[in-house]
Amino acid sequence: MHTSTSTSASHVAHRFRWRVVDIVVASVIGVAAGVLFWLWGLAWPGLDSVLSFTPGLSGLLAGGWLFAGVLGGLIIRKPGAAIYTEVVAAVVSMALGTQWAFLTLVWGLVQGAAAELGFAILLYANWRLLGALTSGALAGIAVGLLDTSFSSVAALSFEARVAYFVSAVVSGIVIAGLLSWVIAKALAATGALDRFAAGREARAREAEPSDAA
After folding, report:
1. Taking the model in full, what pTM does it have?
2. Which residues of the chain have pLDDT under 50?
3. I need a labelling partner for 109 at 20 to 30 A (CA). Which of 163, 203, 209, 212 fits?
């Protein structure tokens, strides 16, 4: 029994150990997402004005800064992947000249930790839609709390802050959660993720019909 327990623990440790390819791909995801974060920041004032007809509705835009952690977690499938990719994205966005300067890194750390928690509470065992939505929802909660407490949103009325918070959570679920899951599946289908569990699972699903035949 002792040998079986040791073997099981060794298997888990090996499964969660970061490889060089994990670091490289997570970094690429983070850098690419950081550029998109920066572009989203440039578009934000115009998009915010479009949604200004309902105070607080701009929370729907929050997911545009949350997807890096969820996508990184879904692809790398290792503890720390979500927070790593989100922080790298925040640093890249900040380096490119985001209007929120150093606060971008603070938000990135909190958002990444929240996305990480979404996978952690499912014991890093659910990389399907549920895991993505949970991670996205918690990231949305994190940015909703941050923005309604420490940004210009905090000056809005209570009702508008509630609307912003709810909108941010919805955005986290849809943009960061659902969209990241769709992107991960699409990448896996192309063969780009064949060195990862996500890619191997996609290949196994493709092989099932022919095997049955």
Report:
1. 0.91
2. 7, 212-213
3. 163
